[in-house]
Amino acid sequence: MKSKWIYSLVIFLFFQWNYSQEKKDDFCLRFNIKYENETLVQNKKYVSKSKDTLQLETFRFYVSNIKLILKDNSEISEENSYHLIDLEDPNTQKISFSKKPNIEIKKIVFSLGIDSTASVSGALSGDLDPTKGMYWAWQSGYINFKIEGNSSSCKTRNNAFQFHVGGYLKPNYAIRTIELEPLNSNFVINVDLAEWFNQIKLSETNSIMIPGLKAMDLADKAKSMFSISEF
Amino acid sequence: MKSKFTFMIVIGSVLVFSLAFTFIKPTPLYFQIPKGWPKPNYDFTKNPLTEEGFQLGRQLFYDPILSKDSTISCASCHLQATGFTHVDHSLSHGIEGKIGTRNSMTMMNLAWSKTFMWDGGVNHLDVQPLNPITSPAEMNETLANVVQKLQKSDQYKSLFFAAFGDENITGQRILKALSQFELLLVSSNSKYDKVIRKEAVFTDQEQNGYQLFKNNCASCHTEPLFTNGNYENNGIPIDTTLNDIGRQRITEKSEDYLKFKVPTLRNIQFTNPYMHDGRFKKLTEVIKHYNSIGNGKNLPKQLQKSMNLTDNERVDLVAFLLTLTDNEFLFNKRFSYPR
Predict the structure, then answer these.
(1) B133 CB near a chain A CB, below 8 Å?
(2) Pairs across A and B, CB distance < 8 A
(3) Rg of chain B's alpha carbons, rounded to an integer?
(4) Is residue A6 less than 8 Å (CB to CB) from chain B?
């Protein structure tokens, strides 16, 4: 009669094993946060083309409404596609997709930021939970991306620069669409902050914390951070 | 055979045990819309009201744990007996005696509000508490920290379990529970309401005041909520010690300069001082302001002309405004400090 127990245990373990297998096979979008050619290191000194010496303390951004467009023009998307990617947390730099594309991916399309639907829906959960520090208090809406650190070029308290870029309402809509075309199935999405810092002068622009023209300009400049390369 | 029997018993009790949890469900609450009132703006399907959710929200509302040094609760500036505002304080004080820049708002009939705060910067009731919690002059705390503090409390673990089915404490759940408490703060049983429902009658003086109200005030302070939910410049000059530009800060449009939310007039007898910066201590001062308003720039067309009421008419208008006092609301034990 012991066999019944063993039998149940085997079935149980089989399902466990099956489940973990499935997890492993998930399709993943990997993000590699970089400064020029190397992986970005928090608080390491970098120099931009605008001759600013800078150190990054915080870099977080939302990737949302991800769509994979396949070679046959079919699309794979996910429900509630909202992901917060955080420099400090490597686990967030990998987005696993439950649906695995069985043919080649032609294009990856996603938004940098959070759409207006989620911005007007009150308290949300997971990566959209306001505890993540990416929701504005005095003026509702998500911060699409946050870049904080310091640079000797900033004549501010502690030489700090702070960029909280967001805005879901027109005319200050700061969400940007990113489109990338992978060369083969083994790819990684690069997010190169040098591309962004090269376009600004920290002595002039060092604190943008509200939606508006300046925020939209910084959002435009953020588009060039994204590129794709072989893994 | 014995082990087969044991096997069945174990499986059976596991099933019964798991069933037990399905029966511990929060008690649903029904949101009653007062007769003749418009449809609420809040989407209750996204946050279904339950007795346990309401009680959790009430507990949080009265708990100073929301502030950085555990000294200030929501109720510090929103007292029930005065329509959930800070009586006698033109500007409210937060932690370490820091003073804010605006008069604390009343809290009632919030399910009908589309936007929140004096400048309308907040687009949903759920996310309003982020303002006082994170404001350096109010609670100076982060929601993430509040979650951490609550997770250490066994009492809160069981309250969250009762309200949401498990002990998980998240920012979303804190905000949803606070909303549940706030949504049920409905004031609809003033003398005015009873007169409308034909359960009471106005005195002649109140009736005359009601007529004056309808002619002079109702275009902005629309019945039955006594606000149209809009933002207007009401003609009071800017306080140069605060330089609060109002709604323009949010919209960045020059036409929104000095516009503030049209507040409800319900329970106005006890919500003093008045205006966004609490500059008027008495209701008679407010009426005097509208009675002699100049031809200021930017004024809405409803205020282009002064009211020019006689002394007696002004007394009658105040008499009507006092019929908006709802003692059942102000002294409802369900809304008071949880004991």
Answers:
(1) yes
(2) 79
(3) 24
(4) no
**Tens digits of residue pLDDT in B100-142:** 999 999 999 999 999 999 999 999 999 999 999 999 999 999 9
A70 Cβ neighbours under 8 A, 6+ residues apart = A76, A101, A103, A104, A105, A106
Is residue B321 less than 8 Å (CB to CB) from chain A?
Answer: no
Same domain, yes or no: B53 and B174: yes
Contact A87, A59 (CB under 8 A): yes
Please give the Cα distance from B9 to B15 (Å, whole number): 10
CA dihedral for B272, B278, B284, B286, sign (positive or negative): negative
Cα–Cα distance, B206 to B331 (Å, whole number): 24
| pLDDT tens for each residue of B276-294 | 999 999 999 999 999 988 6
Cα B42 from Cα B47, distance rounded (Å): 9
On whether both B176 and B93 belong to a single domain, the answer is yes
Angle at B123 between CA B121 and CA B129, to 5 degrees: 80
* Contact with chain B for residue A123, Cβ under 8 A: yes
Range of the domain at B147: 44-187
Kindly state the average pLDDT of the residues A33-39: 96
Same domain for B75 and B168?
yes
pLDDT digits 0-9 by tens, B242-275: 999 999 999 989 999 999 999 999 999 999 999 9
Domain residue spans of chain A: 27-230
Q: Is A4 in contact with B7 (Cβ distance < 8 A)?
A: yes
The answer on B139 and B223 residing in a single domain is no
Please indicate whether residue A98 or residue B103 has the higher confidence score (pLDDT): B103
CB-based burial, A139-154: b 16+ in 10 Å, e otherwise? bbbbbbbbbebbbebb
Distance from CA of B124 to the nearest CA of A (A): 5
How many distinct structural domains can be found in chain B? 2
The confidence band for A215, taking pLDDT boundaries of 50, 70 and 90, is very high
**Mutate: best of B3, B41, B123, B175, partner A, most A CBs <10 A:** B123
CATH classification of the domain holding B212 = 1.10.760.10
SS3 A191: strand
Specify the residue for token string 């609809």. Answer: B188
- The amino acid at residue B301 is K
> What pLDDT digit, counting tens, does each position of A114-136 carry?
999 999 999 999 999 999 999 99
In angstroms, what CA-CA distances link B85 with B25, B189, B195, B287?
34, 19, 26, 20
- Please tell me whether residues B69 and B140 are part of one structural domain: yes
B177 shares its domain with B232 = no
Residues of B in Cβ contact (< 8 Å) with A171: none
How does the average pLDDT of chain A come out, rounded? 91
Cβ–Cβ below 8 Å for B123 and A141: yes
pLDDT, chain B, mean: 93
